[in-house]
Amino acid sequence: MASEFYKDILAPTGVYKFYADGEWRESASGKSVAILNPSTRHACYQVQACTQQEVNQMFDSAKAAQKSWAQTPLWKRAEVLKKVAALMRDNAQPIADCLVKEVAKPAKDSLTEVVRSADLIDYTAEEGVRFLGEGQLLNPDSFPGHARNKMCLVSKVPLGVVLAIPPFNYPVNLAVSKLAPALMAGNAVVLKPPTQGAVAGIHMGAVAGIHMVQCFHAAGLPRGLLSVATGRGSEIGDFLTQHPGVNCISFTGGDTGIAISKKAGMVPLQMELGGKDVCIVCADADLGLAVKNIIKGGFSYSGQRCTAVKLVLVVDSVADALVAGVAEGVAKLSVGMPEDDCDITPVVSESSANFIEGLVMDAKEKGAAFVSGPYRREGNLIWPVLLDRVTPDMRIAWEEPFGPVLPVMRVASPEEAVAHCNASKFGLQGCVFTRDINAAIALSDAMETGTVQVNSAPARGPDHFPFQGFRDSGIGSQGIRNSLGMMVKTKSTVINLDRESYTMG
C-alpha cells in the first residue's frame, strides 16, 4: 500500500473491501472478483463480490442516513465536500497508480484525473450553496381569475437515494461528477464501480473508486450516506438498478444504459451513453488547427473517450492536405505502456480489442485506405489506425470503436456531412472547423448533437459546462449546476391567507 491513509480498505487476504454503513467490510459471500491489468492481461487486484442481502443493507442504511443529511445546512454539506477534495489532493498518487494498472491510463493523465476530480468537488460545494439556496415566491393574482390570497413557496428537496454507476475510462472523475452533486443536494448514494466485459465480469476502475471513497470516509461523511457495492454485474447489476430503494440512477457507459432505462420505471434518469462524435472540416478551415485537434481528439487515451473524434467528415477540396497532416502527426505518437506515459496504451480488455479489430477488418475488406501503415496489434495494444476513403457501407462509419482508430470520410459539402451526422443513432458531441462564424453557427444549429465545438475537438469539460446527448447518447444533462438540478425535485408549500382580513388591510 502506497499510503497509510488507505490501509483500512484492504483485507488480510489481499482482497479490497467494500464500503457500507461507514465501514470497510469483507463480504459474507467469501468470494472475490479479479481485475485484469489491460497491459499484462493478468489479475492485478481482487475486490469483494457483494451479496444481494448486503446490497439490501446498503439501501436500508442509505435511506436512514439520508433523512438527517437532508436536514443538514447547505454550508455544512459544503464543508464536508471541501474536506473530501483536500484529502483527495493530499492522497492522490495511490488513486492515480490504480488507474495506470486498472485501465492502462498514462501515469500523467491518471494524476490529472484525480486532481480534476478534487477541483470538481470544490466547485460543486460552492455552486451548491448558491444554487440550492435559491427559492421562489409566487403570488396567485398573476393568473386570471385569482386574487392575491395565497403565497406559493417553491423549494428544492432531495430525491432520496441515488444509484451512481460510472464508466471504466474515467472511474474517478465520472464517479465524483455524480457523488458530489448528489450529496450536496442532500441525497444518499450507493456507488457501483464500473464493469467492463459483462460476460467475463472483469471490473475496471473499482479499486481506484475504492481509494477515492476512502477520502469521503475520512472527511467524516455520516455513516450509511455512501456505500460501495462491488461484485459481478450478472449477480447484482439488475438487482441494483431495479431495487425499490433507488430514487434516481446516474449512469455513464454504453448500451447497458439503454437496457437500464427500459427497466427503471418511474425513476429519474441521468444517462450519458455512447457517441459517434463527428468532426466536420470545411473548405476554409485552418488546417493546421484542425489537424492538431483531430489527433488529440481522436487518439487521447487511445480513443477510449465518449467525446473522442470518431469520424472525420472533410470536404473534398482539402481532404488530401488534411489527411497528410493527420498522418504526419499520427506517425509521431508513442506506443507502449501507461507507466511510460505513452500516447497509445493497451485498450481496456481483449474483448474490446477484438471488437476494434473487427471494425478495422470490415473497413479493409470494403476498400478503406490504411494511411498509417499495416494494421498492428499485440495483445490489447493496438497501434494507431488512420483510415481514409471510408464509405457509408462500412461499420466504422456508424459504430463506435472506443479505440485508437480514426476514420476519414470525404464529402462534397458541409451539408452532406451534417446529413451523415444526423443519420447516426448517436448524438453526443461534434465539432466544426471553419473560419466563417456564420457558417459555424448555421452548422451547429443543423447538427443534432448535445454539444458542438467550433474550431476545437469535442470535450466534456470544463466540468461546469452543460453536457448532454441526443437520441441513444443520453437522457438528461450533466455539468455541475445541471447535475445539481437533476438531483433534486421541486416542492411547493402554499400558504392560504384569510381573504377577508387580507383585503381589509
Relative strand content: 15-25%
The helix count comes to: 15
Q: What is the arithmetic mean of pLDDT? A: 93
Assembly state: single chain
The general outline is globular
Instruction: State the end-to-end distance.
Output: 72 Å
Give the radius of gyration: 24 Å
Molecular structure report:
The structure is a single chain. The protein has 505 residues and is an alpha/beta fold. Helices cover 38% and strands 21% of the residues. The protein has 15 helices and 26 strands. A hairpin with a 2-residue loop joins β15 (377-378) and β16 (381-382). The strands form eight sheets. Strands 14-17-18-13-12-20-21 form a seven-stranded mixed sheet, with helices on both faces. The protein folds into two domains: 4-273 and 474-490, 3-Layer(aba) Sandwich (Aldehyde Dehydrogenase, Chain A, domain 1); 278-454, Aldehyde Dehydrogenase, Chain A, domain 2 (3-Layer(aba) Sandwich). The protein is globular and about 75 Å long. It is found in: Cytoplasm. Residues 24-492 form the Aldehyde dehydrogenase domain. The active site is at residue 272. Belongs to the aldehyde dehydrogenase family. One of its GO terms (cellular component) is cytoplasm.
